[in-house]
Structure formats: C-alpha cells, structure tokens
Specification:
Order of helices and strands: EEHEEEHEEEEHEEHHEEEHEEEE
Radius of gyration: 18 Å
CATH class of the largest domain: Alpha Beta
Helix content: 10-25%
Largest sheet: 18 strands, mixed
Number of domains: 2
Number of helices: 6
Distance between the termini: 7 Å
Structural class: alpha+beta
Number of strands: 18
Mean pLDDT: 96
Length: 262
Amino acid sequence: MKLSIYQADAFTEKVFGGNPAAIIPLQEWLPEEVMQNIAAENNLSETAFFVPKQNDFELRWFTPAVEVDLCGHATLASAHILFNHLNYDQPEIRFQTRSGLLTVKRNGEWITINFPADYAEKIEISPLIQTALQTQPLEVYKGRLDYLAVLPSSSGVLQLTPDFSAMKELGQRGVIVTSQGDDVDFVSRYFAPNAGINEDPVTGSAHCVLIPYWSIMLKKDELIARQVSNRGGYLKCKLLGNRVEMSGRAATFLTGEIVIAL
C-alpha cells in the first residue's frame, strides 16, 4: 500500500522552526497498530491521520509511543496541508476528534484553531514536582491532562533542566512551565516524557491551560505567547469563555509517499 505523507512545521513562518508534524491523509482508517508503527517510524512528536466524513474530517494524533487525546500543532499542520496541498477551498475545517469538535479557520497566512479551554486548579507544591523540575515554582496547577508550574522569570523557564525520570512519576501527560514574558505576554516550555516526548517544541494543547491562566493573571483576553524551546514558536491567543483560539503559521517541509504492507 502506498500513502501520501506530508511534513509541516507549525507555529512558525519558516522551516526548521516551530513544531514538525507528519500528516497522512486517508480514505478509511488503517489498523491502529499500523498507525502507531508509522508514527514510531516517523519519530516526530506527532503524526496526524485524517479521514473525510461527510462535510467534516475525523482526526487522530499519535506520538512515537501512544495515541493522544489532543494535539494543537498537528491540527494546525493538518489544516495547512488541506488548505495548501489538497485543494480544500472552504473557509473552515471541522475536525471530529477524541476531544470533540475542533474548528480551524484560515486568516491569510495565519491559521486559527479553536480548542476547549482548561481552567486548571491550584494544588500544593509536592516534593516530587520540585524534584522533577529541579527548581522551586511559585505555584502549581493541575489541568485535565497536564500540570502547570509557574516560575518567577522567563530566564528561569529558559534555563530549566528537568529530571525526566522523576517527571514520569507525576502521572499526568506532562508538565507545562511558564512565566510572564519580556517581549510577549507569557513564555512556556512543555515536557511530556510519559508520552514519549521529553520536550515538545511548540504545544498547542498546553495553551488550553496557559491561555485561561494568563488571561486571568493579566486581565486581558487577547495574548501573545512564545514557546521557548530550541526551535521556538509564536502564537496569537484569545480566550473565549470555555474555548480558546490559537493562531499560528506553518511551513511545508516535505511531501512524499510511504510504502507499507498490510
């Protein structure tokens, strides 16, 4: 069997930045084991697969290790491929996912994804979290999927060197680390060793937690964010009550074909 494959860098305007995702359009679902093996072979933080369903698309995301419930950058990358390579000419894409309906719109060179907001709850700072982060956070919150740790400064976020073995013991999908930014509203990094990704370059789903938190802290609904991984990413963010919007750009790196035996 031959399948088309695309790779795009999301939340960046040029290749070699942002977060790379592999995108594989399908007409019908492959066996789950095959999709997981393809994701492991690609060895990117996410491989996305989508199947048309009436006027919508069903969308699934796989890390090299597991299928995940929510992924922002691979959703944005999937929309980028549909808009720019697969002749999708409607202004909005509707993705049916394990996290419900996700809508995506194109605004010139920018793509806006609409995700569920996650208002995380403040929790006590445990010794294990301190060990995992190798630093003392100001506050820690627990969201649906991830912990959120707030640090005093952007330099502290940049210099963080986590203990990933300890982080795996925390039980959540991952840990978001954040602070107020110097030239943007807030900065962040995201670590998910339990999902097979020690550090994710740019994480849309983490901003489901970050946007409500910083909107409340900074008393504003529209925010500019930067994820300060080595590759880095830039997002325009908006809080819409129980939903959040994230806007970013994407750049195509690869178009090709894979061959598998079923």
